[in-house]
Amino acid sequence: MQDDSNILAEMNDRSREVFRRVVEGYLESGDPVGSRTLTRSMSEKVSAATVRNVMQDLEYMGLLGSPHVSAGRVPTQLGLRMFVDGLLEVRDLDAADRQKIDETAGSNSDDVGGLLDRVSTALSGVTHGASLVLAPKHEAPIKHVEFVSLAPDRALVVLVFGDGHVENRLFTPPLGQTPASMREAGNFLNALAEGRTLSELRAVIRSEISKRRQEIDVLARDMVESGLAVWENPGEQGERLIVRGRSNLLSDDTSEADLEVIRSLFDDLERKRDIAEFLELAEDGEGVRIFIGSESKLFSLSGSSLVVSPYMNADRKIVGAVGVIGPTRLNYGRIVPIVDYTAQLVGKIISDRNQR
Fold first, then answer.
1. Contacts with 225 (C-beta within 8 Å, 6 or more apart), sequence order
2. C-beta of residue 15 within 8 angstroms of C-beta of residue 57
3. End-to-end alpha-carbon separation of the chain, Å?
4. Tens digit of pLDDT for each residue in 80-90?
5. Which of 72, 98, 139, 336 can pair with 34 through a Cys bridge, CB separation 3.0 to 4.6 Å?
6. In this structure, are 104 and 26 located in the same domain?
């Protein structure tokens, strides 16, 4: 098959206009677009039969499809991708949308989690889709680490950061751990931790454990690795995915089959199974990216689209992401600037707070 990027360039003006109008009509209504509808809006006067022939050619090229017996056409996933890449006109951000997003940043609270909750709620309200916000991990230097035994199968790890932030996390310790092994694990970590961020500490610990495997008591080593896994688990609070607006994906005419795949999608998100993939999607490049249907590992079964953008801290390092999920017939031209603006706003707020 020829290179997708050349297909649009090789189309004549009439084919390109028919293709664009079918996609725009579908994105607006969700319904197949027929030849008679198109003849009324074409820039040149053509017959319905001529338009039908063009649509058949576009279908043969894999850009349009016939959903059922209807004479109308809808864009395929390939067609939507080509439209988004080559013909999409991104609007300026609407002033009312900007105001609703700006209002989420109005609080002077230092609670980043609360801020991102509000951002996610506003994003889903403005876009009428489901919103995803990946909160950043706390990356201030560590001051102190301590393990506390609560029961044979439950322990608490306390992490105190240099900026005063404290995180407590429950985890399941290795079998046979003792107060002595917990103290030894804590001492080992504290000797390495001070002045390092959690990410830096992980790398150092792995190196130290391999170098000093004989010196560190086996139980203490297991405690260190088990306690660290608490912060590495992407489903935990340190790097959490905030999902709002699930109901926006469910309409009165949603089919039972579609309901099932949407439930499956949100079950995955609830278990945070794909949170790492979500950030990977955003990290591949700056700016907004659009994933349609099976292009995204997250939503290959759901027939959904994802519009996602990373946000950065003051050091221009990607620390999180914001996105919107909706049906493949999202209003991409409107959603893209909303996601872009929200990501920039969140990045600025987080950078400003970390510099206080």
1. 209
2. yes
3. 55
4. 999 999 888 88
5. 72
6. no
